[in-house]
Amino acid sequence: MTSPTTSSTLLSVNAGRARAADYTESASGMTGIDKRPVAGPVRIQDPGATGVGGSGVAGDTICDLRFHGGTDRAAYAFAREDMDLWERELGRELAAGSFGENLTTRGLDVNNALIGERWRIGDELVVEVTGSRIPCRTFAGFVGEKGWVKRFTLSTAGPGALLRVIEPGEVRAGDPIAVVHRPDHDITVALLHRASTVERSLLPRTLAAAEWMESGLLALARQYAGKYAGA
Known about the structure:
Layout: E1 8-15, E2 19-20, E3 30-31, E4 36-37, E5 42-44, E6 75-79, H1 80-90, E7 103-106, E8 118-121, E9 125-132, H2 137-143, H3 148-154, E10 161-167, E11 169-171, E12 176-181, H4 189-197, H5 203-206, H6 215-229
């Protein structure tokens, strides 16, 4: 690992319970997107294989394992700074967890984090960045804003980062966050998000981070790399 960089802060750990919703993509009609801050220490660990395991955050519920949860998507982090941008744009208060994030951070450059970058949170937990959040119908329905998927995708506020657990541990609000490793490539969360949504010609380039990428985005990148190779 490289030497730790300046610490930032974990503002909140958020978890959600399953509830019925008519806007969810889940076959069960249930969603756990409504995350709320959790008091006290919360354990975060590898939840098991993608498509089988749920959330890595204790007490958090994942209802649609096709697109959420599992080793590659054990937790989701979103920067408070980006939430503040959305507050101003939407004209309403957004509490921690309002975007379905498990970890609300401050002072951490979440969107310019490299795929494969590792963060130590508190004394025990080490997580690794695997990808960017792709907005879905459930997210749009929960936020309740017209054209939300397109707005979120195109916004200058970043998408937030998906995380896998390297070293499990307990965390709580107020814990410091330090970047303890950055891999040798230039594929950031923001770039991967752009490549997988509005500029797919960039997808072959993102394979420089294939070793660390979330499985769904990796499959998409490989599909497009093959398409362009055969063109």
